[in-house]
Design a protein that fits this description.
The protein is an alpha+beta fold. It folds into 2 domains: 39 residues; 88 residues, no CATH class. Helix content is 31%, strand content 35%. A 5-stranded antiparallel sheet has the order 5-4-3-6-7. A two-stranded antiparallel sheet has the order 1-2. The termini are far apart.
Length: 136
C-alpha cells in the first residue's frame, strides 16, 4: 500500500493524481495539435515569390531515448531542401521532411534538386519565408 506523510494514500487522493495526470496528457495533446495547425496555416496569406531549390541533404537522426518496447525504433532520415529567392536581396529558407528509409529520402530530395518552387514571404520581414507542402 502506498504511504506518505505517515498515512496511507486514500482512494480520493489516487483519483486526484490520476485526474491530474490525465489533464497533463490532454494539455500536451492539445499543444501538439495547435502546433500542427499553426505549421499548416503559417504563411498561407503571405505574398509569393519564385525560389530555386539548390541544396538537398539527408541526415540520419538516431533515436537515443530508450524505449520499453524492444523492437520500436524511432530513428529516421531527415531530408532538407534549401531554397534561394530574391526579395529584393538574395534570401534563403528550408523545408524538411522525415522518412523511414534512406533510399526513399534520397530519391525524394534528389527529385527536387534544381526545381523552381513558390514560397510565401513574410511582408514585414523578407528574410522569413515558408515553403508549404501544398506548393511542392
Amino acid at each position: 500500500m502506498l504511504m506518505y506523510a505517515g498515512g496511507p494514500v486514500t482512494r480520493f487522493e489516487i483519483i486526484l493524481i490520476l485526474l491530474f495526470g490525465g489533464a497533463v496528457m490532454v494539455v500536451g495533446i492539445c499543444w501538439q495539435l495547435l502546433g500542427n495547425w499553426k505549421k499548416r496555416t503559417s504563411g498561407r496569406n503571405w505574398p509569393t515569390v519564385s525560389a530555386v531549390i539548390d541544396i538537398v541533404s539527408v541526415a540520419f537522426i538516431e533515436d537515443d531515448i530508450p524505449s520499453p518496447k524492444a523492437n520500436l525504433d524511432d530513428s529516421y532520415y531527415l531530408t532538407t531542401l534549401t531554397y534561394f529567392y530574391g526579395n529584393p536581396e538574395q534570401q534563403t529558407g528550408d523545408y524538411s521532411r522525415r522518412f523511414g528509409k534512406k533510399d526513399d529520402a534520397e530519391a525524394w530530395a534528389n527529385s527536387y534538386k534544381g526545381s523552381t518552387v513558390v514560397v510565401h514571404v513574410d511582408p514585414r520581414d523578407p528574410t522569413r519565408s515558408v515553403l508549404r507542402k501544398e506548393d511542392l
